[in-house]
Design a protein that fits this description.
Elements (H helix, E strand, L loop, with lengths): L1 H23 L13 H18 L11 H19 L23 H10 L9 H4 L4 H16 L6 H8 L5
Length: 170
């Protein structure tokens, strides 16, 4: 049993060395055009969701989903997010940028707020908190607006939905 356990521990310690050497020697894939395998996508999404769930502070969204607030969030989305999350450009990234029009995010508002505020490592999603160093209230206000919009994207009121449908004309 002792030999088995020693061999098992040695085997586990060799794995990181082999992965490091494979990367150092250029054997690990690096093309952004590649489609990630399903296991990689599922694992990365699981890891991201678990991290956010563990580290995001449960905040209450200060905005009500009124037509005015949803329109304001739509404007923020169109100005700052749509380039990646509502276009073919997002498909050129690795990992692919989620296309919220066809698959709205299903996370609670406070987790979406945390993601937008902090960004996502190893992706093109930057931290919005860094964008407004001089005024955190501007950052938080814009984040809450876009979070409110994304949370209601698949159930917008008719007046906002009509404006949203005209976005291709912008």
């Amino acid at each position: 049993m002792r030999w088995f356990l020693s061999g098992f521990i040695l085997g586990l310690s060799v794995i990181p060395v082999v992965v490091f050497l494979a990367g150092w020697l250029g054997f690990l894939p690096a093309k952004a055009k590649a489609t990630p395998p399903d296991w990689e996508t599922r694992f990365a999404q699981m890891a991201l969701n678990s991290y956010v769930e563990r580290h995001a502070q449960p905040l209450t969204n200060p905005l009500q989903p009124t037509s005015d607030n949803l329109r304001a969030g739509m404007k923020v989305f169109l100005d700052a997010c749509a380039g990646c999350h509502d276009s073919d450009y997002g498909d050129t990234m690795y990992p692919r940028a989620p296309q919220f029009v066809s698959a709205p995010p299903r996370l609670p508002d406070w987790q979406l707020f945390w993601l937008v505020n902090n960004g996502v490592r190893y992706s093109a999603m930057s931290a919005w908190d860094s964008a407004w160093h001089h005024d955190k209230t501007v950052s938080d206000d814009k984040i809450w607006k876009v979070v409110t919009f994304l949370s209601y994207l698949d159930r917008l009121p008719p007046d906002v939905k009509a404006e949203w449908g005209q976005r291709s004309e912008h």
